[in-house]
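Query form — protein Cytochrome B5

QUESTION: What is the three-dimensional structure of this chain?
INPUT:
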Amino acid sequence: MAEKEFTRDELAKYNGDGEKPHYMAIDGLVYDITDAPKKGISIKKLMEVVFGRSKEKDEILKKLTVVGKLAD
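ANSWER: The structure tokens for Cytochrome B5 are given below.
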């Protein structure tokens, strides 16, 4: 796992605009979700993971790359 720590403000900059990747924090870890659709992960599935409604959470997160963790 990457050791980079992201503040919430810094994480907000990785929103997929322009050439930037799209990152999302889930359970304190920061994942690169830029290519999630290419990996068969829809936005709906990601939101189900975020809101604790996914029965496939572990399988979905295994497909994503961890790029760091969310700073407290």
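ADDITIONAL NOTE: Strands lie at 5-6, 23-26, 29-32, 65-70.
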